[in-house]
Fold this sequence. Notes:
CATH architecture of the largest domain: 3-Layer(aba) Sandwich
Distance between the termini: 29 Å
Bound molecules: nicotinamide-adenine-dinucleotide
Number of domains: 2
Amino acid sequence: MTKKILILPGDGIGPEIIAEAVKVLAFLRDGSDLDIAMDEALVGGAAIDATGEPLPDATLDLARQADAVLLGAVGGPKWEPLPIEIRPEKGLLGLRRELGLFANLRPAILYPQLADASSLKPELVAGLDIMIVRELTGGIYFGQPRGVSAREGGERVGVNTLRYTESEIRRICEVAFDIAGKRDKRVCSVDKANVLECTELWREVATDVGAGYPNVVLSHMYVDNAAMQLIRAPKQFDVMVTTNMFGDILSDAAAMLTGSIGMLPSASLNETGKGMYEPIHGSAPDIAGKGTANPLATILSVAMMLRYSLDQPGLAERIEGAVSNVLDAGLRTSDIMSEGMRQVGTCDMGDAVVNAMADASRA
Length: 363
Ligand code: NAD
């Protein structure tokens, strides 16, 4: 059956990097058994300009009907003066909420060819391959009560609430264990169970879920230690699973270990496996329109889409292999450029990946 893919280019470099990812999808659609239909819609600043809203109903309807969504990036200085409720980022949050995307998968992968790009010593990070599974729709970012009020002797009080139900913890842990089962079979559950009762429950439920996966080794780590270990010896981790806020912070730290924001994809999944796929970087207004943005994070997001929503792991590997071959050939966009390599623009990088896939299928 034809799978529906909704393409949301968004703002800044979004349309430029999405164009390259679409080239890759079109190549696979035309040259393999991948049966997809692509549709495109507005989100973020582009949607505000056209309709006054960051997530128009028409876009949300198409997203609901789609099997997977591919997003570029949203936001930029043009829309910063707007009230917070109608800023571009609200479009993204609205999509996550409306589609029930509770599981955020953030790989931190360092291609060996780019080991020099990291701020850590190459031997600490070369070959790094961590998957951070972050809970995305619960925890302290959503818990009630919340807000700032002036109720204690005229002094203002700020409140946020860390809240998780057992079922919310269970479903995110199951995602992590399922993924670990297909990788190196190790899950590290990150909490602060020595201080926060809510994460004491997290630890209990994670342990309970782990009992159902005898082939996967579970360990627990306090979040402060996890932050330290990520910088000290990041290759000790396979899959990390954690709360919304801890995952937000740890996944950014892990991403930076790779030193190349333009290389990292992400996925956000709901309970049926439907997902939204996007690079981890933003709309990079400083380089928008220059044709220099690195499209590889978006192209690798397509690989994640094939693996997690379209059940095509072989095609995902073809894309990842082609990216590796292009790096081996010395092609670099400006963000990952180093001495002796050949600098290329966004479009040439996309073409090179498609050509590498074509070469690999001829070989
Ligand atoms: P950013 O990720 O857009 O850019 C940070 C730096 O990295 C910039 O110097 C940029 O040029 C560079 N960079 C980012 N992606 C690159 C790529 N593919 N190739 C080469 N260089 C790249 O972060 P920012 O500058 O803090 O935010 C810019 C805008 O993006 C803001 O409006 C922010 O709200 C938005 N944003 C959106 C998302 C999203 O859509 N998911 C995520 C983060 C930030």
